[in-house]
Design a protein that fits this description.
Blueprint lengths: L1 H21 L3 E11 L2 E13 L5 E11 L4 E11 L5 E11 L2 E11 L4 E11 L3 E11 L4 E11 L1
Length: 156
């Protein structure tokens, strides 16, 4: 009985110790805030983030980005954020709400050095009275958006 008791408590502790050494660090409830002129410019929140071995890349799950000044809210199933380069790649089920429009895509990449948001995938933009879709996207911080090929617009 004493041996069983020892195994249950001490054995479990050893197992947890070994498991934690083999896995990378992670956060639950991650929040990254970018400030400009003393106020929040944008906020990235994720339900969970796993970090690479060198802790420079965060693999995030259930991602929400709020660009406060632009009035934009973005949701994605997952993404990767590089803490050094500040590059962001979002993947799966991406929805961006800007004013009365909804933009849907499978992947989006943000490059802070060029200040450009891009995608090679099919992108749909739904507004109150229109739908525009095309392959490939390029967007600037000033919300100038360009679909690059196979563009189709429907107005209703």
């Amino acid at each position: 009985m004493l041996i069983l008791f020892y195994f249950i408590f001490n054995g479990e502790k050893e197992y947890r110790k070994d498991a934690s050494v083999k896995t990378n660090s992670y956060f639950e409830g991650l929040r990254i805030v970018n400030k400009r002129s003393g106020s929040d410019a944008w906020v990235i929140a994720a339900r969970k983030a796993d970090f690479s071995g060198d802790e420079t890349v965060a693999r995030m799950y259930a991602v929400t980005i709020n660009a406060i000044k632009e009035g934009m809210v973005l949701d994605a199933d997952s993404g990767r954020y590089n803490m050094v380069t500040r590059e962001l790649l979002l993947e799966e089920n991406i929805k961006i709400r800007i004013k009365d429009s909804l933009i849907s895509a499978r992947s989006l990449a943000w490059n802070p050095s060029t200040r450009l948001l891009t995608s090679e995938d099919r992108v749909m933009i739904d507004g109150r009275k229109f739908r525009i879709e095309g392959d490939g996207l390029s967007a600037t911080e000033g919300q100038k958006l360009k679909l690059t090929k196979n563009v189709r617009a429907t107005f209703y």
